[in-house]
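Amino acids appear as letters; backbone shape is given numerically. Here is one record.
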Amino acid sequence: MLKTLFTISANHRMQTRTCVTVITALLLAVLTLHGQTGTLPVIHIDTQGHKPITSKTVYIPGTYFVVDNNNPEMNLGSEDSPLPLEIRGRGHSSWKGVKKPYKLKLGEKASLLGMNKHKHWALLRFYEPTVAGLQLGNIMGMDWTASTRPVEVILNGDYQGLYLLTETNRIGKQRLNIYEQPNWNEDASTIPYGWLVEVDNYIETNQIKIAENNKWTLQVTYHSPDSLSLAQRSWLIEDFKAMNAAIYDADKTNSTWEQKIDVDAMARYFIVQEVLDNSDGFHGSFYLHKDKGDDARWVAGPLWDLSCNQRAKTDYTFLMKTTYTFVPHWIGELIQDEDFCRAVRREWSKFYPQQVQPWMDYIDEHLLPCSTAYEQEKTLWNFTDQSTLSQRVEKLKSSLLANIEWFNSHLPGETNSITDLGIVNQEVVNVEYINLAGMRSSRPWSGINIKLTTYVDGSTSSDKVIIP
């Protein structure tokens, strides 16, 4: 076609050059659409026989390799020597979308893009609140929070666009590092320990149900152990019944629920959901875990399935009206307990205001480099919203900052003052981060940090901060 165009008579050459320019631009656009940008790491996955992935329960064998042009030391496998994996679909409502999320099980444990070695990973749709929310979990000092990396994916030779490669919520030395009891356990002395469960808004087979109140049911999906003996099932049902009864105790000065649940961890979880304005926070994907020990209690987390409504926040998130059936488990009762409210105010004083700007900086640093790949994403999947990623990030940050200020003016409890916590709204004069080698910086290091805050009166506070 191009050769024919170039043979047109001289008096039409100017028009010809214009046609060639247009055709070339169109060809380049098509090539770009079907290929990675190279600005982010790329995961190449091929299923056996290029079989399509249609099941959320049955894994398909395949291979993978990772190419990171910006950090070649992160490359893993190669086109000539790919590594084994299995892949299946995952998710509930997200699985119904045109762009599918996936669950990966590697043939051998591997450190993907600098994250801890493991076999189990997820490819989630690229979603800015996920990145922001998981980092907030790190800042708040939750026991463990999944790490994530933006990647481009090529599946069976076809470009799939922008994803978040994410660690999954599992018990293990490189994930949620707590004791894990075995499946089919009959030992009554160890059954109360080593659990990872999820208060769920979907019906699953690995689930128990109890009546939470006279309006709705509490559905608890057990993830670890995932196969229960009769003794395990009986214990789990009775423990959640007892915990639920304590939470719903009309005497809110009694607080016997604190014997079952870590109040500080629940306060941190509540703050994350309110700052994000995440209506799923106490509705579903509400994880709880329990380690081993004489005083072991249920701990809120790890975080999962985070979103941000980006509305004009006028009330607590668990009170908002939604277009779907919305069940805010437990939080309506907990917020009436002054012990819980005091814990919320105490944990909030560690976050606000000193951690706000570093969090905003993190959001920029980890999302804006995805801008080029995001433009591909918009074209590939026919996004109706044509905003640039920079515009979306600014909108998200504006919503989060507004949520923070609203929450700071509506801290739960008898008073908005935090004088009863021993900190009288003192001005912060310095914040330092100290890594495990004892090195100090005004910005957090990757890994485990001790955040040392100095106040105007010379007093200090220290908190653990984990940066993936």
